Amino acid sequence: MKSLKRIVELYDEILRLPHKQEVARELRDEDDLFLLLLYSDMLGIPNPAFYYTLELYPYIIDRFHDWHLRMGMEKSPFEGIRCC
Questions:
Q1: What is residue 2's three-state secondary structure?
Q2: pLDDT at 36
Q3: Which of 3, 19, 29, 45 is the least crowded, having the fewest Cβ atoms under 10 Å away?
């Protein structure tokens, strides 16, 4: 029984291996889009849900630095958020 479980795990791993990078890239792109939507009001893009997303800032601020570097901004684009 244990060897069957190991064979199933190995088979599952073989199937997932070629797609791991694609899945990681898709998850990162979705995360970047979510952060863009979250900070869109600060960038001058109207966000009708700004009031509701304001509550998420304390949870998202840790990832802000990585996000603005991936977006091609060397320094924080916002005066109110200093991370660099």
A1: helix
A2: 84
A3: 3
Residue 47 backbone class (left: φ over 0; alpha: ψ -120 to 50; beta: rest): beta
Residue 58 to residue 45: CA distance in whole angstroms: 21
What is the predicted pLDDT for the residue at 2? 80
At 35, which amino acid appears?
L
pLDDT bracket for residue 45 (50, 70, 90): confident
Q: Are 38 and 53 in contact (CB under 8 A)?
A: yes
- Token pair 């970047």 is found at 32
* Rounded (10°) angle between helices 57-70 and 20-39: 110
Q: Which residue has the tokens 């069957």?
A: 4
Q: Please tell me the pTM assigned to this model.
A: 0.60
